[in-house]
Write a structure and sequence with these properties.
By secondary structure, this protein is mainly α. It is about 95% helix and about 0% strand. It has two helices and no strands. Belongs to the ATPase B chain family.
């Protein structure tokens, strides 16, 4: 092909030398048009089609990746929304469990305090009964001692009066 182009260039140069004008309307103009068309066809087949094919493939790849990324983003947003709803529900359940546990703890604390107060009252009453019993025993012992001492005093007073 290069030889063909070289021959055309040589013939064109000869034709220009013979005619002497810049715009001779001989076989040069159609020959140049044919050369231009052949060059355009050759460039299209060798460079532009493969380059266009690569660009189309790349465009298709980018488009598919954009669609895939959009789908993944939508799915991720949906999953995030679902997790947020589940988290909110779990928080509500946790708060309900905490409230129930606090209520139960208060009941247990109140029951424990009540039981402790009853036990303390029972111990106070037991101690009071023991103190009353000891007091009564002490009074009975004192009365016996007072009676014995009174008898001795009487015996001494009567014995000193009789003597």
């Amino acid at each position: 092909m290069m030889n063909f182009v070289w021959l055309l260039a040589v013939e064109t140069a000869e034709a220009v030398e013979e005619g002497g004008g810049l715009f001779d309307l001989d076989a040069t103009l159609p020959l140049m048009a044919v050369q231009f068309v052949l060059l355009a066809v050759a460039l299209n087949a060798l460079f532009y089609k493969p380059l266009g094919k690569v660009l189309d493939e790349r465009d298709g790849y980018i488009s598919s990746n954009q669609v895939d990324a959009a789908e993944r983003l939508a799915k991720a947003e949906q999953i995030a929304k679902q997790y947020q709803q589940e988290l909110a529900e779990t928080r509500r359940q946790a708060q309900a469990v905490i409230a129930e546990a606090q209520e139960e703890a208060q009941k247990i604390a109140a029951q424990t305090v009540s039981t402790a107060q009853q036990e303390a009252q029972a111990q106070r009453e037991q101690v009071q009964r023991e103190l009353d019993e000891q007091k009564n025993q002490a009074m009975a012992t004192l009365e016996q001692q007072v009676d014995g001492l009174s008898q001795q005093i009487l015996d001494k007073l009567l014995g000193s009066l009789a003597a």
